[in-house]
Amino acid sequence: MTSAYAAAGVDIEAGDRAVDLMKAHVAATRRPEVLGGLGGFAGFFDASALARYEHPVLATSTDGVGTKVAIAQALDVHDTIGWDLIGMLVDDLVVTGAEPLFVTDYIACGRVVPERIAAIVKGIAEACAAAGAALLGGETAEHPGLLHPDEYDVAGATTGVVEKSRILGPQRVRGGDVVLGLASSGLHSNGYSLVRKVLLTDAGWALERHVDDFGKTLGEELLTPTRVYAKDILALIEACEVHAISHITGGGLVNNLVRVLPEGIAVTLDRASWTPAPIFRTVQAVGGISQPDIEATLNMGVGMAVVLPAESVDAATAVLTARGIDSWVLGEAREASGEGASVVLRGTHTAG
C-alpha cells in the first residue's frame, strides 16, 4: 500500500537505497578524527586533534556549484559535479592557510534516483579524498513540485583549521611581492549563466557538437571538473614563504585578487604572460564580449593567484611543477601610498 508521503511524491525507500549506495564512497574519505558513521543526526570530529596547534583558528566556507549542474543534468553525467562543489569549498578555505578537515553536503532534488544521488556523492567523496578532507555527513532532500523530477542542486560547507600566526592575507603583502598564476582546468564552476546563454541559447550549439579547438565535444569541455588545489597549496605554504592567495572564482582575476591586498598596494598583471584556453576565447568571440566584461566574469585560465616574495618564486614554481600544476609570473605588487588596493591588467594575451 502506498504511503501518504509517497503519494505526495517523496520516496523514503529510494532515499534509504541512495544512502546504502553512497556508504563506500563516504568511507573512503574517513580521517582518524572522524567518530561514528553515516546515519546519525550529526557528524562527529574529534577536536582533540587540534591540541597540536599553539593557537588554532577554525575557518569555514560554504558554496554551491551554480548553473553548471544544468550541464550535468542535460548530459546525464553526475559523477564529476561533486569535484566542482569541493573545489569551490576547500579552495576558498585553503587560501587562508587553513587545512580542510571535513565537509558536509546538501543535495536537493525533484525525485530521488538512488544511482544518480550515489554518483553525485561519489564525485564529492573523490574530491574530498583528493583534498584530504573527511565527508562527515550530508542531507538529500526530495522536493517534488518545487524541482522537476530530474532536477537537482548541490551545496555544502567545509571547516578547517590554521595556526593563528600563519594565517595568510592582506596583512602580509608588501611592495615588491610577485604574483604567481596557477593554471585552471577550464571554466571551473563560474560564469555558466553567461556561457550557457552565449553558446547554447544564442548561438544554438549542441552539447554533442565536437569543437576542434577543444579536442572534444562542447558538453565534455563544459563539464570539465574544477581543479582541487588544496593539497598543492598546503604543500606550497609548507615549502616557501607565501603572503596571500586568491581563489579566482566569480568576478574574475582582478576582483578576486584585490580582496587579498591591503590599502596602499597596487598590482600590475601582464596578459602577455599567459594564453587563455580555447574555451575562454570561444565564449568571448561567439558572444562578442568585451575584454573587461569577459575578465570580470570568467577565470580566463587562472585558478589561483599567489602573492609571495620574489625570492620564493623559484621554490614555489618547483613545488607546483612537481605536483603537476602549471604556474607562471603574472605580475608584481608596488607601494602606492595614500591609495586603496588596486589591480590592473595590461597588455594582450599571447596567441594560442
UniProtKB/TrEMBL annotation:
<dbReference type="GO" id="GO:0046084">
    <property type="term" value="P:adenine biosynthetic process"/>
</dbReference>
<comment type="pathway">
    <text>Purine metabolism; IMP biosynthesis via de novo pathway; 5-amino-1-(5-phospho-D-ribosyl)imidazole from N(2)-formyl-N(1)-(5-phospho-D-ribosyl)glycinamide: step 2/2.</text>
</comment>
<dbReference type="GO" id="GO:0005829">
    <property type="term" value="C:cytosol"/>
</dbReference>
<dbReference type="InterPro" id="IPR010918">
    <property type="entry name" value="PurM-like_C_dom"/>
</dbReference>
<dbReference type="GO" id="GO:0004641">
    <property type="term" value="F:phosphoribosylformylglycinamidine cyclo-ligase activity"/>
</dbReference>
<dbReference type="GO" id="GO:0004637">
    <property type="term" value="F:phosphoribosylamine-glycine ligase activity"/>
</dbReference>
<dbReference type="InterPro" id="IPR036676">
    <property type="entry name" value="PurM-like_C_sf"/>
</dbReference>
<keyword id="KW-0963">Cytoplasm</keyword>
<dbReference type="Pfam" id="PF00586">
    <property type="entry name" value="AIRS"/>
</dbReference>
<feature type="domain" description="PurM-like C-terminal">
    <location>
        <begin position="176"/>
        <end position="340"/>
    </location>
</feature>
<dbReference type="GO" id="GO:0005524">
    <property type="term" value="F:ATP binding"/>
</dbReference>
<keyword id="KW-0547">Nucleotide-binding</keyword>
<comment type="similarity">
    <text>Belongs to the AIR synthase family.</text>
</comment>
<keyword id="KW-0436">Ligase</keyword>
<dbReference type="Pfam" id="PF02769">
    <property type="entry name" value="AIRS_C"/>
</dbReference>
<dbReference type="GO" id="GO:0006189">
    <property type="term" value="P:'de novo' IMP biosynthetic process"/>
</dbReference>
<keyword id="KW-0658">Purine biosynthesis</keyword>
<dbReference type="InterPro" id="IPR016188">
    <property type="entry name" value="PurM-like_N"/>
</dbReference>
<protein>
    <recommendedName>
        <fullName>Phosphoribosylformylglycinamidine cyclo-ligase</fullName>
        <ecNumber>6.3.3.1</ecNumber>
    </recommendedName>
</protein>
<dbReference type="InterPro" id="IPR036921">
    <property type="entry name" value="PurM-like_N_sf"/>
</dbReference>
<dbReference type="InterPro" id="IPR004733">
    <property type="entry name" value="PurM_cligase"/>
</dbReference>
<feature type="domain" description="PurM-like N-terminal">
    <location>
        <begin position="54"/>
        <end position="162"/>
    </location>
</feature>
<keyword id="KW-0067">ATP-binding</keyword>
